[in-house]
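Exam revision sheet. Question 4 asks you to relate a sequence to its structure. Input first:
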Amino acid sequence: IGINFGRLGFLASISRDELHKAVRAIVNRTIVIDKRSLIHLDANQPLFDNVPYGLNEFAIHKTDTSPMIKIHTYLNGEFLNTYWADGLIVSTPTGSTGYSLSCSGPIVFPDSASFVITPVAPHNLNVRPIVVPDDNIISFEVEGRTDQFIVALDSRREIVDRKIQLAVRKETFTMSLVRLNENNFLQTLRNKLSWGLDTRN
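Answer key, structure tokens:
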């Protein structure tokens, strides 16, 4: 259950003013449980303390001071694209309202069974985010002027050698998120993004 004590917080749909209401809803069993898909990382070396899954996204980044990197990307072994960029994000539907959104990725509904592939600061202007079905295995080969780059799962990150083999897929289990019955996804979008409001004055 997410309680918002900060600012945006798409997953924290319950405000601090609704805390007592949320507790009553849990006691009375009038809450709604959403099943959210996770993203799983397969690699040829141990990463992330053998907890290789995330709720929001997997990301590949150049190191802080290095030039852009080339990320060759494949869907089920078939070549998709080479991204010349600072990095690449593969987000779940839940993660589509997070880091991917800030890099001009689309918002997709939580039950859409998809991944969003979003480049970070791409060099080519014709490269745009793409939505793919989440039954794809997405694999990567990374090239760059340096031997290392960064991989991240949600807020966790590790520095790896570019010879590493990486692929992501849908995790075999889901995560349960609790929300109040009236806090559906469309209402959350309207409230968090001020959709439908005239903000010109």
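Marking note for examiners. The longest strand covers residues 166-179.
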